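ok so for the tutorial part 2 we go from a plain amino acid sequence to predicted structure tokens. step 1 is just haveing the sequence, like this:
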Amino acid sequence: MNIRAKLTLQFSIIVASILLLFSLSVYLLSDNYRREEFFSRLASRAITTVRLLVTVKEVDYNLLRIIDQNSIHQLFEEKLLVFNESNEMIYSSLDDFPLIYSDSLIAHVRTQKRVEYTVNNREAVGIVYTAAGEKFVVIASAFDRYGRSKLQNLGQVLIAGLILGIGIIILAGRIFAQQALRPLAIMNAEVASITAGSLNQRIPGGEQRDEIGQLAQNFNLMLERLEAAFAIQQQFVSNASHELRTPLAAISSQLQATLSKERSGAGYRKVLQSLVEDARTLTELTNGLLVLAQSGIDKQRAFFKPVRVDEIIFSAQTELLKSNPTYQFQIEYAQFPTDDSALQILGNDQLLRTAFLNFMDNACKFSPDHSVHVIVGFPKDGTIEICFADKGPGIHPEEQTKIFDPFYRASETSSRVRGHGIGLSLCARIVQLHKGNIRLESQLGEGSRFYVGFQTGG
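step 2 — the prediction. this is what the tokens look like for a chain of 458 residues:
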């Protein structure tokens, strides 16, 4: 059973139950009102009869029967009995409908003063009437033909209305379920059309402020994560297959050339040194590709913790000096903060160290004196900005928007400095993962400045 059928069934059962309860309540209340009204009429007839019999001297036993028979207020199948204090019957109407009574019933009426009961669908009432110092018991019984007929008609109307109402409820429930599930049907059709090649497709309805809108938003967020993961995977495979081919081919060709003829010890040593350089290049390229792929995984945000930006900068400086003792660093604060929290952000210290190390390594490579100027500033409350300035040749304006693309190298630097074009794209990924921003200022012949900003307060 699908959701539409379940909703229709549940809606129909609930509303039909309410309608049935309402109809039953109307019927029972109407029946109770009929009985009370008929008992009142019976009591009125009983009191009128005994009053005429006891208090009006001109009315005797036979005359009272004639009056009862010709009364316009006589009830259908009416029967009246009057008993004196000795429980002797002193009057009985002429109707042929027997009224069963007993001494215990008469005694009960004398005790309760008024007793109402039903026997064989006939209502009966017993009343104590006091006159001339004597207590009489009057028992009146009749069949409420008119009231029961109205009640029967009411029951038929309620049953017909209930059947018709249930039919309308089922139809309305089906329409209601169809309307309610229409956004889900549309969403289901959209989801069914999404494949691995169309992960950029999005589900409509995310602007709604209900549960379906939240579902669409969450599903779109999941698609974004899947799209990013697929893009990273495809890019990694593409980059790896493209970039690893060159050093592997170089290593293979050198080995083949070495094995093609005998060489001296110095010759073998020269080839081995070249192979070591190629192996180092291959290792650096592989590590760069792996870090580049990992830097785009959003789940790493779950492992973020408060870290101090300046400590990471000094750590990256120490690591660079181990491999490049000739590098020169000038690190300063634009203004020193009074609160240490101004230097803290939420992040991954290893990834941030990788980014800062790449910024400083690039600056030192391109500066003639192998130096980098690092300035830690606070442009506004709640932010921190690190500037990495070099004295290099600068970047052409047309190339400034491309330098963060993987494996792209600016024309002014590609021939001067050895590299793979991974560093800045890796830095951009890491900064983006930390919800930061990068701004570049560069002029040809005057060097470049990379400004990296983060939100503080970690």
